């Protein structure tokens, strides 16, 4: 009797144990299923991109060009679906007003209130430098376009920053190649902020390596409209060349012409700007310099699409200086998300984007792993007058390859 009871007790205990284990497993399965259900929407939620641009202020034209290119770029890269890896793409534009403090406010709003997965921008190097720390703080990828200050991917670099825009050193290599050689004396003229400082420093380094001497550096208030005293100091220095670094509508070209700088034996060299500024450069016809972009220079299928679509949508207007850059920023984001299958986690994206090559309206670009600067083609050009065109036209001398214009690593 005692053995029977003990055996019965054991059987009942075993049955109870198995029932509890089954319940526990069932509960665990439900818990896992619940977790899966909770996680599932994250893979289908929209990708949100916050775009910072100068829609007002001194660089308003650059913001307009970038935004047009960015929207076209999303459409091109997604083949018109505006989605990637099953996730819709939404973008929110904020005006920085070309003021760093406003840029910080707008970026914070995009990150905290709108919950963006990416930042893109901005038109001004000053605005962009102010926002860089936020990308790191909130652990979100920021695509820098079109700001060019070297410090963005140099002294102020952080791992969350990737730049599709060229930087000042790339401009400098192209500019120096056009005029610098042994014994040539050069003066520089630039706006008195990070864009100008970095541009001159990089040009000086590149030009001196080629044997030229920088005999005078002149900086002007970026908001100024009267450059008389600045130009007179340059004339007094008696250089062989004046290399100008400038951005914005208040360009010095008319005053350079009025003060007959070239007639005094000083040759002018600079980067060919956007179309509005080219219209003020009539006195510089014949100048040899460089450009980031002009719509007759690239020769590839993506640019053909950009040119055709831009004319179609904007009353026959051609893409301008920073339009392809906006398109490139959009393509870079979509290509990265294709590779991560829609995963917008910053650490995953950093690993994916370092060394990533992708096709753009200017040909192939590659994010250099060391500083996330996109290596890209620039163009050596000469300004010429063309019949029927109301401004001097940048005519190609030769393409400057991504390898040739690769800037120093400064971070």
From TrEMBL:
Keywords from the UniProt entry: Signal
Gene3D superfamilies the UniProt entry points to: 3.40.50.2300
Superkingdom field: Bacteria
Signal peptide: 1-27
Pfam families: Peripla_BP_6 (PF13458)
Ranges where the Leucine-binding protein domain occurs: 46-385
PANTHER family: LEUCINE-SPECIFIC-BINDING PROTEIN, PERIPLASMIC BINDING PROTEIN OF ABC TRANSPORTER FOR NATURAL AMINO ACIDS
Family from the record: Belongs to the leucine-binding protein family.
Protein name in UniProt: Branched-chain amino acid transport system substrate-binding protein
Taxonomic source organism: Anoxybacillus andreesenii
